[in-house]
Amino acid sequence: MALDDEIPLLPGDLFGYESLLDADEWSVVRRTRAFLDEHVAPIAADCWEYARFPHQIVPPLAELGIAGLTIDFEDRPASRQLLTGFLAMEIARVDPSIATFFGVHSGLAMGTIALCGSDEQQQRWLPPMRSMELIGAFGLTEPEGGSDVAGGMRTTAERIGDTWVLQGAKRWIGNATFADLTVIWARDVADDQVKGFVVEAGTPGFTAERIERKYSLRTVQNADITLTDCRVPEANRLQRAESFKDTARVLRFTRGGVAWSAVGTQLGAYDAAVRYAAERQQFGRPIGHFQLVQELLAKMLGNITASLGMAVRVAQLQQDGVFRDEQAALAKWYSTARLRETVAWGREVLGGNGIVLDNDAMRFFADAEALYSYEGTAQMNALIVGRSITGKSAFV
């Protein structure tokens, strides 16, 4: 695609992957970039420092019309996975916390309802989630169950007539302190299968308490959820979620999305380092003139380029409907490992000033740790890839 000469390609996209977008897709990216520059970039550091979510950005974000883009609606066909990937990258480039908020709502929560909900449930919940009148959360991880939650889920669901009674706890649930709808995964005591439920805000027996003293993705409002005799109607049980295999279908797609957020976070660190290298004077010249600084920037760009190439291929495989678990695992594992290196090099370019929030580098440095761990630790994703290589499972 030929882009307007007055609109530069994304800094850090050395191989021009952004040019794979068509004109309409590029317009959406450009509008999103303008929204981020106006509404998110000026407040990102303060929100991070005070662990405060900026609810005021939700209405203008909703006006962009980018929630649930991969879902078919009567008046809006699904967009390409490539577009949603670039949007996730754009948001993370400015603020990984806002990218996580949006990914939980648009990807995990809306994606679960789109994949596992009945036609009636989709019609009931997806339109107001698309307009962001209702915000979603996704409750899978438990206080004692992270990597082993598939086989060790302790949250239970018992059917009594047309009501399900949920008991248990969830941890690290983004958006849960203010979400209108929270997807809860629980093990059916009757058949021992994992099923999905949509719990509406205000349901008795459901409480969400913000996790304090968190030093990565501080703007994200992660919560500890407690479910005590929480009664959910059968109408809120996701009708196409019958086992953990259905949960895994959701995770396969969103895990690929983490790769895009990892690229965006690398780009944010890279932007901060390049700006600083051009402005910071030492020995009578900008530090960008020095060989060792240039080497750090080149290594950052190498990691970004490799990760972005993998993320683009992820989107293409998703679009073709042939995306596999090991591909999702490798993309998430590799891109977040490179992310850790990239943000460290970016902080190094800034020297002592790199630990000050005003320069952005430290925010990206800290946020990288959460991306490295969520949606599957490096070790678990490595074992998924290893299983595909050898045909042997090394899980305990």
TrEMBL record:
Organism: Nakamurella alba
Pfam families (UniProt xref): Acyl-CoA_dh_1, Acyl-CoA_dh_M, Acyl-CoA_dh_N
PROSITE patterns for the chain: ACYL_COA_DH_1, ACYL_COA_DH_2
Signal peptide, first to last residue: none
GO biological process, one term: fatty acid beta-oxidation
GO molecular function list: acyl-CoA dehydrogenase activity; flavin adenine dinucleotide binding
Cross-referenced InterPro entries: ACX4-like, Acyl-CoA_DH_CS, Acyl-CoA_Oxase/DH_mid-dom, Acyl-CoA_Oxase/DH_mid-dom_sf, AcylCo_DH-like_C, AcylCo_DH/oxidase_C, AcylCoA_DH/ox_N, AcylCoA_DH/ox_N_sf
Protein family (similarity comment): Belongs to the acyl-CoA dehydrogenase family.
Cofactor(s) listed in the protein's UniProt record: FAD
Domain Acyl-CoA dehydrogenase/oxidase C-terminal residues, every copy: 249-389
Keyword Flavoprotein: yes
Keywords assigned: FAD, Flavoprotein, Oxidoreductase
UniProt-listed SUPFAM superfamilies: Acyl-CoA dehydrogenase C-terminal domain-like, Acyl-CoA dehydrogenase NM domain-like
Positions of the Acyl-CoA oxidase/dehydrogenase middle domain: 137-230
Protein name per the record: Acyl-CoA dehydrogenase
Annotated ranges, domain Acyl-CoA dehydrogenase/oxidase N-terminal: 28-133
